[in-house]
Structure formats: C-alpha cells, structure tokens
Amino acid sequence: MQTLGIDLAASPKKTGVAWLEWSGGKARVSKLVVGAADDELVEAMATAHKTGIDCPLGWPREFVDFIVEHQDDHVDVDPGLAADWRRRLSYRTTDLYVKRAVPGIQGLSVSADRIGVTTMRCAALLSQLAARGLAVERTGSGPITEVYPAASLVRWGFDHKRYKGTKAQPRRNQLVDELQSAASWLELGEYEEDCRASDDALDAVLASMTARAAALGLVEPVPAGSQVAAATEGWIALPRSGVKISELAASG
C-alpha cells in the first residue's frame, strides 16, 4: 500500500508531501518534498491508495448559509446568543468534535482564520480530482481524507506542542527521536534530516501515517448525527482512542 501525506499551504513553496510504502510490517518514506504545485499534487493524489490532507475540506454549513443570506439582506442575531452563534459560524462540526475528544487541541477556524486561504486552494485541488473521475468523499470514506497531525500525535501518545517553526528544531529533533523509538518500523532513510529541519516535512509524514490509519479503519467513525455535516464540511480522521501506533504496520 502507498499512502500520501500533504501538509497543504496556501503557496506551493510551503507545501510538504510525503509518500510512504507499507510492506512486510514496515513503512518506508520513498519520497519527501517541500514545495509542490497543484498539478503535482493532483497527480500524486490520483495514484496513491489513500491520501491524508492537513487542511479543512470545507466550511461550516451555517457560515455558508450566513454569507448567502447576508448578500441579500441584513442578519439579525439575539444578543444573548451571539457568542454561540459566532462559534457555530467559525467552527465545523468536526472541529468541535476533535476539541472535545482530544485534550489540548484547538483547531483553526476555516471561516475566520488564515487557514481559509489554504482551504480555497484545497477546494480547487478536489475539483480537479473530481474532473478526473476520482470520487472525493469529504467524510474520508474515499481515497482522500482530512487529517490533523497534532491530534494524531496526541492520540498516539506524543506531545504535540512546540515543534513548529524555525526556532523549534530542538523540540522537533526530540519528536523525531521519540517517533522513531516508538515506531521502529518507520524508515525515514535519507529524509530524516528533512523531518528534523522542517515541520512541513514532518507534518507531511504524520499526515501520510494518519492516511494509513484511515485506510485500515483505525480512526474514529463519523457519529451518526454528524454524517450530513461531514459530507459537506469535511471530517478529520482522528486515530481511535487506545489504538497503538504499532498497529499501523501490523498488516501488509
């Protein structure tokens, strides 16, 4: 099995992409790049067994409805409900689910933070995939799934804090060491230094590992009451509670 992990950014320059080959109880990083244009990403996603994208696959339904209504009229809100109303406009059902399920995790708002620009790029990529006949299910049931590397780290027993940025290399080095100790079957090979030097590279590897978890059914299912929201807003593939990282390599 080949999984692909994409740490998507608004610009190609900061986009990390990792290919992992799974065989014989091991996972080998066969290719890792930081810097990928849209056509390269589409081609890679079209050939991978499962792709994990670190980027929202959609916007909150209530936010979309709000924008449409605002175009035609003014929107009135009961002052007593304003805070909760803004929260529902800002965060998707999956964002709120992950926040409740994973202590210490607070995702970005796709409708109120800069991640929205990256999501615009993602939407265009998904459209190109659909035009090629590749079914894109935002619930993650198809070959594409949304991932959140920080949440995956927590579920696998790692500290997700302070490993991002140019000044965070000491912590990133530690995290890579911890990851290799816990997952001795993971072969970073010539790309180990890239993971230590760049959080974009490391997140791409983590995204690819989460894609593997999703392919094996080792992620939390979409709750029955959230299926409709997941189909339009997207759903984060969250590794199941209690599943050990070693289970990723348990089968071929």
From TrEMBL:
InterPro entries, per the entry: DUF429
Species, as recorded: Ornithinimicrobium faecis
* Superkingdom field: Bacteria
Q: Which Pfam families match?
A: DUF429
The name on file for this protein is DUF429 domain-containing protein
